[in-house]
Design brief:
Blueprint: H1 3-17, E1 27-33, E2 38-39, E3 44-51, E4 54-62, E5 68-69, E6 82-89, H2 91-96, E7 106-112, E8 119-126, E9 129-132
Parallel strand pairs: 1-8
Antiparallel strand pairs: 1-2, 1-5, 3-4, 3-6, 6-7, 8-9
Length: 136
């Protein structure tokens, strides 16, 4: 499969995967490996909220066999408007796959304005690059 086809396949998988967010949880993530078009299990992910000048830790999880964390936001806290940061700890995953990596972790900062919506953060990953966007 050509790299362009793999990219389109990964985007299509990510789009379909975000159609069924976890009921009630406002935040999910999904990691796909662009090199082979497969999900990326075993990636540690942290969630932080920007408070003043600092980032306050909120939650952490590990991607499952489909490369997802369906419920990353803590169930016992209100989902507030503001800036959040999801950090994908990709270095160990890529090392286990036999790759060096230029990005041992990938922070994605995003702004929440509408707390009644679901936010899905997909990450398309390769050893020397990545892409992300707001899914639905």
């Amino acid at each position: 499969m050509t790299p362009l086809r793999m990219t389109f396949a990964a985007l299509a998988l990510s789009a379909f995967s975000s159609l069924a967010p976890a009921a009630g949880n406002p935040l999910s993530v999904h990691v796909l490996n662009l090199e082979n078009g497969l999900p990326s299990p075993g990636i540690n992910v942290t969630l932080e909220h920007h408070v003043g000048q600092d980032w306050q830790p909120l939650a952490q999880g590990t991607t499952n066999e489909q490369g997802r964390i369906a419920e990353l936001f803590p169930a016992n806290q209100p989902f507030k408007a503001g800036e959040y940061r999801v950090v994908f700890k990709t270095g160990e995953y890529l090392e286990k796959a036999g790759h060096e990596t230029f990005f041992p972790e990938i922070p994605v900062i995003f702004k929440v304005k509408q707390t009644d919506q679901h936010y899905h953060i997909p990450l398309l990953l390769s050893p020397y690059g990545f892409s992300t966007y707001r899914g639905s």
